[in-house]
Amino acid sequence: MSEEAIELLKRALTLPLEERAELASSLMESLDLIQDEDAEAAWQEEIARRIEDLRTGRVKTVPWAEVRKKAQAILHEETH
């Protein structure tokens, strides 16, 4: 990373949380130069399928505490 980018990052990190989030979002959007309309349609279909799976009971949700516990266990295993 260039000195200019490092300095900009340091300044950005002093912004309030909401402003940092907006800045990060704008930066991410600037990287997405090519919009794939097929990909957007595919995501919409996937979202609809997942909602239907939840609605019909084909899949069940998992509480966040359980997901976090499993993720921490996996990360702990990988670091040891």
Describe the structure.
The mean pLDDT is 92. The chain has two domains: 1-33; 36-80, no CATH class. The radius of gyration is 20 Å and the shape is extended. 76% of the residues lie in helices and 0% in strands. The chain has helices spanning 3-12, 17-31, 37-56, 64-79. It has 80 residues and is an all-alpha fold. The protein contains four helices and no strands.
Concise structural overview:
With 80 residues, the chain is mostly helical. The chain folds into 2 domains: 1-33; 36-80, no CATH class. The chain has 4 helices and no strands.
Q: Which secondary-structure class do the elements indicate? A: mainly alpha
Question: Could you give a short account of the major beta sheet?
Answer: none
Indicate the mean pLDDT: 92
Rounded to the nearest angstrom, the radius of gyration is 20 Å
**Number of DSSP-assigned strands:** 0
Based on Cα principal axes, name the global outline. Answer: extended
Total separate domains: 2
**Distance N to C terminus:** 31 Å
Strand content: under 5%
How many alpha or pi helices? 4
| Helical amount | over 70%
- Which consecutive residue ranges, at least 5 long each, have pLDDT under 50? none
What's the SSE pattern?
HHHH
